[in-house]
Amino acid sequence: MSEPKTIELDVREDLKNKLDPYQKIMDAIRSFESGDIFILHVSLKPLPLFTVMKAKGFTHKAVQLDNKYWKVTFTKN
């Protein structure tokens, strides 16, 4: 069994420029397997994404690090 992989993606600049990062996020997690970790840096709490990721088999932990800075860690079940 291979080691779990971890991918980090910072989409704060995309959101600042009014670009939707959804496809970038979906591309990043496409080949995820059980135990893999996806760390998302974002400027707001991505509530709609939590539902999408749960349906794809992920759990999440969101931490607000600053006024407009959230770090969300998703783990593939």
Set down the secondary structure blueprint.
Layout: E1 6-10, H1 12-16, H2 22-29, E2 37-42, H3 47-55, E3 58-66, E4 69-76
Parallel strand pairs: 1-2
Antiparallel strand pairs: 2-4, 3-4
What kind of assembly state do the chains in view correspond to?
A: single chain
Number of strands: 4
The low-pLDDT segments are none
* Biggest sheet features: 4 strands, mixed
- CATH top level label: Alpha Beta
CATH architecture: 2-Layer Sandwich
So what's the overall shape? globular
Distance N to C terminus: 15 Å
Pfam family, one: DUF2249
InterPro entries: DUF2249
Domain DUF2249: 8-76
Organism: Ammoniphilus oxalaticus
List keywords for this structure.
alpha+beta; 36% strand; 77 residues; 3 helices; DUF2249 domain-containing protein; globular; Translation Initiation Factor IF3; four-stranded mixed sheet; single chain
What does this protein structure show overall?
This protein has helices at 12-16, 22-29, 47-55, and strands spanning 6-10, 37-42, 58-66, 69-76. The chain is α+β, with helices and mostly antiparallel strands and 77 residues long. It has one domain: TusA-like domain (Translation Initiation Factor IF3, 2-Layer Sandwich). The protein has a 4-stranded mixed β-sheet. The radius of gyration is 12 Å and the shape is globular. The two termini are 15 Å apart. This is DUF2249 domain-containing protein.
